[in-house]
Design a protein that fits this description.
The longest helix is centred in the last third of the chain and has 20 residues. This protein has one domain. It has 120 residues and is mostly helical.
């Protein structure tokens, strides 16, 4: 006999607000990870309901990595600037390569997130 998997109920009265961009979704994911690391528990009582869990964003990025669409350099840039809570700045000369990698990763990520309805 197969064991039933637990799936959290999504029957929420609040309206679900998709992210405006993949960048906004990524920054939300990183903030959620920081909160988890600091001991917070993620719950549904947030001010704005989102169309996914933070882990869904992570899975989308890892799917891109496993398919070799994004490389380790992309992941390093996503992690570095996600932790700084800002995208690379085109006005800073040493961040131009990072900006190219960031935009490339965001373009690929936005395709997956739009397909899933996470980005509007």
């Amino acid at each position: 006999m197969r064991k039933k998997r637990f799936t959290p109920a999504r029957g929420d009265a609040r309206t679900i607000t998709p992210f405006a961009s993949a960048e906004e979704a990524w920054m939300w994911f990183v903030r959620a990870q920081k909160a988890r690391r600091d001991g917070a528990r993620l719950c549904r009582s947030a001010v704005m309901a989102r169309p996914c869990e933070p882990d869904d964003i992570y899975c989308a990025v890892m799917t891109l990595y496993r398919r070799r669409v994004v490389r380790r350099d992309h992941l390093k840039v996503l992690a570095k600037f996600g932790m700084e809570d800002r995208p690379p700045d085109y006005r800073v000369a040493c961040e131009t390569v990072s900006l190219t990698l960031w935009r490339d990763a965001m373009n690929h990520l936005s395709i997956i997130l739009k397909e899933k309805g996470i980005v509007g």
